[in-house]
Design brief:
Number of domains: 2
Order of helices and strands: EHEHEEEHEHEHEEEEHEHHHHHHHHHHHH
Radius of gyration: 19 Å
Structural class: alpha/beta
Strand order of the largest sheet: 5-2-1-6-7-8-11-12
Shape: globular
CATH architecture of the largest domain: 3-Layer(aba) Sandwich
Oligomer: single chain
Distance between the termini: 21 Å
């Protein structure tokens, strides 16, 4: 990319919890950061301008991250201003916002830039890449994904964010995987601990929020609606019986991965490795969830209309089952949870979620999908 020894320049797209944590923390570490939000959500960044920056709090010193007030170099809804000269564009928004951000970003991209979605879900990067092409992005763009949001974080105000943890050893990959080395070279400059995955099938299937978030939420839905989320989501919500369903769904996720030639780690191991500095230990989801200090944030969804349902079911579980169907792998527990989620939310998450047809994979076999992923 012709950067020489110049420090990497980063555009953070998105003004939510993750966007604030990413833009604030990278700014405090001395990176050239631009914060971008789509025009219709301009109010999410106006308060940052008025406050003179993002106030970053660190909840656990094991993060080894800086705290303080961070003022990104640029804070704007003008996508050309945000992206001009950036080496890396981090799209830190829920999956249901990917299409809108692709529409904006495509207008301003230049060959040689890299766009990474964080977090991803099955088919995330291919779907984003297809949207960029649809909206007129030039060729020569590196597209990739991070398996999950790298920070455990929550907004504390309209201009503040608290970081509880930063994941250790998060998987990243490019689409197609021939761009893996270039993408890892960029991301490792800001996150040295990221691990290069074989391909985006690994990263998409290793966003294990999809088997945890909706399961714990739906099995605690009465509590969610009665208390408006006033309970410890993991510590109190992930009881032994709830964790057994999460484990069963996780085995279905692993089986789908196996059909695509992948030896995916179980959710408990991924979470334990990510949160090792925060005390996570054990060899089951129940044990890891109850030893991880980063999960002691005490915030559960306040209603059924939460991204734990509206993102993780249609953009996580739905494409996971479609990949299972493609490979001839049954996913009965996941299928049942999707149906329950659709019923209690009163929404058709299957029809409105991410389908293989959205990526152009609906008529492909497993080898054909892998050929597109790895070309």
């Amino acid at each position: 990319m012709g950067r020489g020894r110049r420090a990497i320049r980063v555009c953070v797209a998105g003004g939510g919890n993750g966007g604030f944590a990413t833009a604030g923390e990278l700014t405090l570490r001395g990176f050239d950061v631009r914060l971008f939000e789509v025009p219709e959500f301009a109010e999410t960044i106006e308060e940052v301008k008025a406050a003179g920056g993002i106030t970053v709090e660190i909840a656990d010193q094991a993060t080894k991250l800086p705290s303080g007030k961070a003022m990104p170099k640029v804070i704007t809804t003008n996508v050309k201003e945000a992206i001009a000269g950036a080496d890396l564009i981090l799209v830190v928004v829920p999956s249901f916002a990917h299409e809108r951000f692709a529409q904006e970003i495509a207008k301003a991209l230049q060959p040689g830039q890299a766009v990474v979605i964080s977090p991803s879900n099955p088919g995330g990067a291919p779907c984003f890449d297809r949207a960029l092409t649809h909206y007129g992005a030039p060729s020569g763009i590196v597209v990739g994904e991070m398996a999950c949001l790298i920070y455990g974080c929550r907004k504390t105000s309209q201009s503040g964010v608290k970081i509880f943890a930063i994941k250790k050893g998060l998987h990243v990959a490019a689409f197609p995987s021939s761009n893996n080395k270039e993408l890892h070279g960029l991301l490792s400059q800001i996150y040295p601990d990221v691990i290069l995955a074989k391909n985006i099938m690994v990263t998409g299937l290793c966003n294990v929020n999809t088997v945890s978030h909706p399961t714990i939420t739906l099995l605690n839905l009465g509590r969610v609606e009665d208390t408006k989320g006033e309970f410890y989501f993991y510590y109190q919500g992930c009881t032994p019986s709830v964790s057994r369903l999460v484990e069963a769904m996780d085995q279905e996720r692993i089986a789908v991965g196996r059909a695509f030639g992948l030896d995916l780690p179980p959710t408990w191991k991924l979470v334990r490795d990510w949160y090792d500095p925060y005390g996570a230990s054990g060899s089951s989801i129940y044990e890891v969830d109850h030893t991880n200090r980063a999960y002691a944030i005490g915030e559960a969804p306040r209603s059924i209309n939460d991204r734990y349902i509206t993102e993780d079911i249609p953009y996580g579980l739905v494409p996971l089952t479609e990949l299972g169907d493609c490979a001839g792998v049954a996913t009965p527990c996941i299928d049942a949870l999707i149906r329950i989620g659709c019923t209690v939310a009163g929404q058709d998450f299957v029809s409105n979620g991410r389908r293989l047809s959205d990526i152009g994979w609906d008529n492909l076999s497993v080898p054909q999908i892998l050929e597109r992923v790895d070309r």
